[in-house]
């Protein structure tokens, strides 16, 4: 009996000493359908990583998939099929890019347009690879929040890319019903392919990031490339710079690397992968794996009083011992609705209600009407009608959280949309991309993004 007890103690000590898991998601935007040498780069990368035992996520452009098929590159398709397949838009840089066609559309209309334009490419990937892509990421910085709703309808559960439009603590988060790996800050690590001498510094950066995540209980390091970077010195889509739209016959191929130059790039990536694999507690995962590693988007249970106290003070997510709840999750708790995902409002409204309090019968009808709206539309209203006037969603949430159910009237409280601090306020810099028309800005998309911030919350490792 003492020997068994000692064994249990030793096992417990070993578990406590084990490093927290750090996951590297390595992804490739597989997009160059102009230069045939890029096909060979995709094949080389897929095979090299397979030999190293590191599965990656290859986000494939629809036109790239069709081009591989037309060129008879079944060898590339087979090699990619050993990895995870993601989606990277239908045509990538051929105008109009997603942010351009989404900018003047609302949330619902934009989602429908995104689905119309992008679902054919997704269907081609399903047909060619035999799977529904695990994730999507926008071309360049051409992001739009309407894609979240469309991607859910299309069966794509993860948003894997990089950008500055939205982010939470440089780690994965739930937003718009999708698991986002986005805006990863210092946990985005990308060895420079053009300089061997800089690799050692990047490996030290990796070690520091892995150590920090280990101390925090685990997390994700994001690393990305484009296969064409390994064989060309410029990007293929320079043909479409500043919104240009030349005919296919006028497209020119990008400048090529020398064979020696190309070999160096593969060597640098291989050394990075091998270094990461030797780091205790680190392993490579795909976008598809992340869904199993992170908690569900459905809110965990929370005490109603705790939800009310939080939402009365500020409208943003709440992190609990059991997981995180978005501002929308908390609002559903206070309305007595079952846990579920709902979208945020589609517009911003200012309160028109002029009194300082709402009579109880009127307030109860307003709450019932809000519940009916959410059940019918599966999203939050922009405002809540209080007779012939209304309260903005933020003011309604704050008022609901602070109400005394036994009182004959409900004092009106003003909302504090703290959730908006996680979004960019730079409509030009956030969409800065060579392919967008010169001077392109999209403040409308950032505004829609903030409205959907009611769904924002950190993701937690299981």
Provide the low-confidence segments as ranges.
Answer: 5-16
Strand fraction:
5-15%
Structural class: alpha/beta
Q: What is the terminal separation in angstroms?
A: 33 Å
**Whole-number average pLDDT?**
95
Number of helices: 15
Helix content: 40-55%
Note the main sheet.
Answer: 5 strands, parallel
CATH class of the largest domain: Alpha Beta
CATH architecture of the largest domain: Alpha-Beta Barrel
User: What name is given to the CATH topology of the largest domain?
Assistant: TIM Barrel
- The fourth-level CATH homologous superfamily of the largest domain is Glycoside hydrolase/deacetylase
Please give the domain count. Answer: 2
The shape is globular
Rg estimate, integer Å: 25 Å
Strand element count: 16
Structural key phrases:
single chain; 40% helix; alpha/beta; five-stranded mixed sheet; five-stranded parallel sheet; 462 residues; TIM Barrel
Structure description:
The strands form 5 sheets. Strands 1, 2, 3, 8 and 9 form a 5-stranded parallel beta sheet that branches. Strands 4-5-7-6-16 form a 5-stranded mixed beta sheet. The protein has 2 domains: 19-293, TIM Barrel, CATH 3.20.20.370; 304-340 and 352-411, no CATH class. The protein has 15 helices and 16 strands. The model is unreliable at 5-16 (pLDDT under 50). Helix content is 40%, strand content 13%. The two termini are 33 Å apart. It is globular, with a radius of gyration of 25 Å. It has helices at residues 2-17, 37-52, 62-70, 74-81, 98-102, 107-129, 146-154, 199-215, 259-278, 287-293, 304-313, 327-335, 360-377, 393-402, 443-451; strands at residues 22-30, 57-60, 84-87, 135-136, 158-160, 173-175, 178-181, 219-225, 282-285, 318-320, 323-325, 357-359, 383-386, 389-392, 409-411, 457-458. β13 (383-386) and β14 form a beta hairpin. α2 packs parallel to α4 (74-81), α8 (199-215) packs parallel to α9 and α11 (304-313) packs across α12.
